[in-house]
Amino acid sequence: MSAVPAPSRRPLPRSHARRPHLRVVPEPRPRHTLRFALLYLGLAGATVFGTVSLNALAAGDAVAAHRLEQEVVTAERDYAMLVAEVARLEDPARIRAAALDLGMVPAGSVRFLVVDRTLPADGVMPDLVASDDEATDPLKPVLSVEK
């Protein structure tokens, strides 16, 4: 014998009465699946085309930017070389050596000329009587060795 109780056959309440598995439904409206599929395919194609176009434009701009960066690097290198060339050419020792090669000699002591009287370039004419030579060259008496 077993200790399991036998199932009871009680009647189901009226709310749980068996309902038929099949029921009549109205005819469904026609679906436009082909239209929706074509619309979605068109949107997906436009999205893919737009993405590819933007990537192509970005790649073209990246190539141009890389080329410009290379030009900047080249220009900076040329500028550095030109600065070095200017520094080499401005070197006082090189200028002195070039002057000596041309036959120039170093300057001796420096002399200054102090003018005590006015010159015609000053805008004031002296009241002196000038000779013919002094009238043609107003600086001649100032620069003369005889005075």
In short:
With 147 residues, the chain is mainly alpha-helical. Helix content is 52%, strand content 0%.
Structure explained in plain terms:
The protein is built from 4 helices and no strands. It is mainly α. It is 52% helix and 0% strand.
Task: Identify the notable features of this structure and list them briefly.
mainly alpha; 52% helix; 147 residues; 0% strand
Class computed from helices, strands and strand pairing: mainly alpha
Order of helices and strands: HHHH
By DSSP, the count of extended strands is 0
Largest sheet: none
List low-confidence stretches: none
Residue share in β-strands: under 5%
The quaternary organization reads as single chain
Element layout with pairings:
Layout: H1 33-89, H2 92-101, H3 132-136, H4 140-143
